[in-house]
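Full entry
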Amino acid sequence: MAIRDWPAAERPREKLVDQGAGALSDAELLAIFLRVGVMGKSAVDLARDLLTQFGSLNAIFNASEHDLSQVHGIGSSKYVQLQAIFEMSRRALSEQLNQQDVFNSPQQVHDYLCLKLGGLGREVFLVLFLDAQNRLQATEEMFSGTLMQTSVYPREVVKRAMHHNAAAVIFAHNHPSGVAKQSQADELITKQLKQALALVDVKVLDHFIVAGNNTMSFSERGLL
């Protein structure tokens, strides 16, 4: 059955207008973006197929054009549109963090990091550089590696902190394995980075591990 034949209260667009975007499921939101389905499938059905195949919205956003095009009904134009939406979301969150103390917006920090790292298939180490009011000045991907490991060099982090005249930093890296739990290596490099940055009077406020839509905070666990 086509979506236009559904009861009005169940159609994604009408539901969004009446109840707000937060009331919609991931599949319903994705269906609004897709607009139309394919022969025998509504846009919601197609959205559910995408979520089943890739596992999450983040994974869909981070999928390659080749992988997305394997799904019937998804072509180059949809890939380009998805990438544009994804980048706008990241930039909007970055703008909000630029204007306020990150400690006043922990959910936005979580959302921002999940958008940046949650769907990646390789391990990436990010540094968020903050000013004296804990406002975001810049985000840099400092290092990247294989599925299981990346190499982090404290000297390079110190150099970039000085370049941005940062008063504080937040570290974040992803675990493509899907487990948001620190390893001994994670704890060791955090300690080394904290010691190196202390020499130039830059505070380490937190280190987040991102796994999909989940994050783990070193600060919250008393590991800093």
Observations:
- The mean pLDDT is 84.
- The radius of gyration is 20 Å.
